[in-house]
Amino acid sequence: MIDLAPVGSPAAKAADSIRVVPYLPTEHEKLWDKFVLRSMNGTVFHRQQFLKYHPDGRFNFHNLLFFEGDKLVAVLPGGLRDDGHTFESPAGASYGSFVTEDISAQTALGVVAAFENYVRKIGIHDVYLTAPPVVYQPVLTQNLDFALLYRGYAYQRHYISHVVDLRRPEPIFDRFKPAARTYIRRTLRTMPDVKVEHVSKDRFKAGIEEYYPILLENKAKFGVKPTHSLEDLHRLHELLPNLMELFLVRKGGEAIAGLLYFIANERVALVFYQMLKYQYQEIRPIYLLMKTAMEWAKEHGFGFVDIGVSQDTSDENPMTPALSLIHFKEKFDSRGVLRSTLHKHYD
């Protein structure tokens, strides 16, 4: 195997100055989360306060901190599987990979090289890293991507996610495709008993308990279960009261559709779950729901709404797109961005 960072190279010199320290909850939790909050690419999924919702033993977490002298320059959440031979980031979250401030190319090379030294030292054979799409960053830089690719990482897969750019000046509704606008106008004109409720924090527990059975029913239609149990969502709300925003469509008081945001960071609101009572499908409540939720996100200063990935989970190829779902998302003026996973095998 070619040594991509020979002795004396800039990457090797940078790696020599960086220490890799395994995460200890009692020592590093506050330091870690403060760093993620001030980073240029961190999300709530990188925070230890988020990862704490998992019960003990669900994942074999192996989180790492990277110090240059006494300065923390990167953190890497992740976990081990396959008897410790595979490192995967994220573990128990949607996004992972390295979190940094706006670091130089040399520091990025050093962080990745130091990680590789650590990987070889403890006997890891495969590494998988899934970072957030670039829209989650307020700083346009790909120094880390370059460092990983230079060190021999390659793309293992790409998923397509769809995001709506809220920074544009036009009203959200005006940007929707004509069919979406027609559905919304018809609902507002002919169904005065259909309303959207933004569930308040003091009603969140009751709202999520009303929402969750319909979510279960939706997922069961496709033979899957939600990523989170009801208990998981309650636990997350206890740990991070500002993590989730819940919107419900009511018809005559009955909840018939809903949308649950995870506030990923100050820049992006992520649509984690949408649900619908299928007996009400003909009145298209999801369209009114999307309009209300996106307008809320724009009013609260978010730059993007991420509507999530659109893959055909029934196909053998995990990258196969769900074109009908993509067509639906495009009605809200969304654009495709890549959610990519990098991989490297170590002999």
Secondary structure elements and their pairing?
Blueprint: H1 10-16, E1 18-22, H2 25-38, H3 48-51, E2 64-68, E3 71-76, E4 79-81, E5 86-89, E6 99-100, H4 105-122, E7 126-130, H5 143-150, E8 154-165, H6 172-175, H7 178-190, E9 194-198, H8 204-221, H9 230-239, E10 244-251, E11 254-263, E12 268-276, H10 285-299, E13 304-309, H11 323-330, E14 335-345
Parallel strand pairs: 5-7, 12-13
Antiparallel strand pairs: 1-2, 2-3, 3-6, 4-5, 7-14, 8-13, 8-14, 9-10, 10-11, 11-12
Helix pairs in contact: 1-4, 4-5, 7-10, 8-9
Please give a handful of descriptors for the protein shown.
347 residues; Aminopeptidase; 2 domains; ten-stranded mixed beta sheet; alpha+beta
Which structural class should the secondary elements be placed in? alpha+beta
Tally the helices. Answer: 11
Mean pLDDT: 94
The CATH architecture of the largest domain comes to 3-Layer(aba) Sandwich
* Helix-strand topology string: HEHHEEEEEHEHEHHEHHEEEHEHE
Radius of gyration: 22 Å
Tally of structural domains: 2
Strand order of the main beta sheet, please?
A: 4-5-7-14-8-13-12-11-10-9
How many beta-strand elements?
A: 14
First-last Cα distance? 8 Å
Q: What is the highest CATH level, the class of the largest domain? A: Alpha Beta
At the fold tier of CATH, the topology name of the largest domain is: Aminopeptidase
User: How many strands, which pairing sense, and closed or not: the largest β-sheet?
Assistant: 10 strands, mixed
Strand content: 25-35%
- Under CATH, the homologous superfamily of the largest domain reads Gcn5-related N-acetyltransferase (GNAT)
List unreliable stretches of 5+ residues: none
